[in-house]
Amino acid sequence: MIGAFVGIFEAQFSQCFWAHEEAALGLWTDCGSSLQVALLDMNKTEAESLMQTLTKQYGQERLLFLHCDVEQEEQVKAAFQKTMDTFGGIHILCNNAGILNESTWEKMISVNLVGVIRATYLVLEHMNKLKGGQGGVIVNTASLAGIGPLVSCPVYTASKHGVVGFTRAMSAASALSGYGVRVNCLCPGFVQTGLFSNIPARLGPFSHLKDGTQLLVEKFGIVNMSQVVEAFFELVTDETKDGAALLVFQQERKYMPAVSVTD
Ligand SMILES: NC(=O)C1=CN([C@@H]2O[C@H](COP(=O)(O)OP(=O)(O)OC[C@H]3O[C@@H](n4cnc5c(N)ncnc54)[C@H](O)[C@@H]3O)[C@@H](O)[C@H]2O)C=CC1
Ligand SMILES: CCCCCC(=O)/C=C/C=C\C=C\C=C\[C@@H](O)[C@@H](O)CCCC(=O)O
């Protein structure tokens, strides 16, 4: 999991990660009897404190923390190699690292979109059945802003539309090429995390549109982290899901089919 230490997926461990272990393990024949997790993140401070808690709860042998910035190709490559060396395989990748700051928009594209593409291509070196891998599933964290515009955040919106588009095309490319790797994306609404704080400052040149964003928050409500985690596992364990965009609202979750230009 990349981008693992604060926010949406921090809850994954305390709430339901291992509750889904059996279903996840059932997908591949070479997994052994337990789910092991490598957490890749650039935030060392948060990592150290969460790792202490997690290792107490689940045991050191099932967890690995690797410092890794998704903007740095060599770091991502080395982190996947270390995961392979430690656990013997990679079957699930969650590309979750993301930032929101409309002022530093080139960096936002670099982390939110280029980072997802980079990690996907690098992990395929290990997962791809044509290269000796066992196949697997990739889940990219996009956003509702990957489906429709978040007006106060044009570049964030572009980065997340990019993630949805990449997911759908990569899924089809993988299937047609025989890689044995499914690719899906999660599109949550607003979730109470660090990224969803100090919003006016994050909107940069569009901070004057903050009231419109607040209206959207009131309209959509706040999604619980556990709802996002459940949706993540649906995309991992349901083998019929490939190229899917799963929208996570406060009251429900639903799939958003790609628009066909020939309809
Ligand atoms: N909070 C929200 O309302 C929503 C968030 N999302 C998406 O969910 C994902 C997670 O966001 P949150 O948990 O809310 O944010 P967060 O800021 O709480 O957590 C983001 C995590 O990504 C890591 N990260 C950031 N840049 C990185 C980099 N260059 N390399 C490696 N790790 C990096 C951070 O250290 C942190 O652990 C993001 O992709 C975000 O766009 C999607 C919809 C709604
Ligand atoms: C500004 C904080 C961003 C936090 C991170 C994030 O990704 C949150 C996204 C949450 C919701 C986005 C919703 C976008 C909706 C629009 O695309 C559109 O569907 C809204 C239409 C409004 C209407 O009334 O028709």
From TrEMBL:
Record keywords: Fatty acid metabolism, Lipid metabolism, Oxidoreductase, Prostaglandin metabolism
GO MF annotation list: 15-hydroxyicosatetraenoate dehydrogenase activity; 15-hydroxyprostaglandin dehydrogenase (NAD+) activity
EC number(s) on file: 1.1.1.141, 1.1.1.232
Stretches of the chain forming a coiled coil according to its record: none
Biological process (GO), any one: prostaglandin metabolic process
Lineage top rank: taxon: Eukaryota
Name of this protein: 15-hydroxyprostaglandin dehydrogenase [NAD(+)]
